[in-house]
Amino acid sequence: MSLQPATPADLPAIAALVNSAYRGETSRQGWTTEADYLDGQRTDAATLAADLAAQPQAALLALREAPDGPILGSVWLEPAEPGVWYLGMLTVRPDLQDRRLGRGLLEAAEAFAAERGAGRIRMTVVAIRDTLIAWYQRRGYELTGETRPFPYEDRRFGDPRRDDLSFVVLEKTI
What we know:
The protein contains 4 helices and 9 strands. By secondary structure, it is α+β, with helices and mostly antiparallel strands.
């Protein structure tokens, strides 16, 4: 497997991958779907490009079987504060989510951040995602007790189908 920083040419494929894994009917092929409580797209290439431009130390990493092969997964990493990196948008193609690629992608992302000075990884997960939270806990992430409101007014996060969404914060020492 190859994990490399995404190029501008990769952004449309990554946006399509993220949307297919989290929203709509294709997301139901895997277990990471948010389709029951969020409609709309999760991201697009323009948003990814703008986020990378706004966070020059951030990295959007693309997972491939071979360096020039199709993108099978992706993950967003950015420094949050000294020694702490934020991990988000961990994505594996829905039809491949039973191959343990997510576990390997998470470990590679943690190593990437550690090489750049991270001692901890922080993430947010929609609070009602019990199965996903448990998956991260089995990989050493702990709930911090902190919650954050869901950005209902920001359409970049989709169109909520419920009014009780929020995020929990998880962290792991690496």
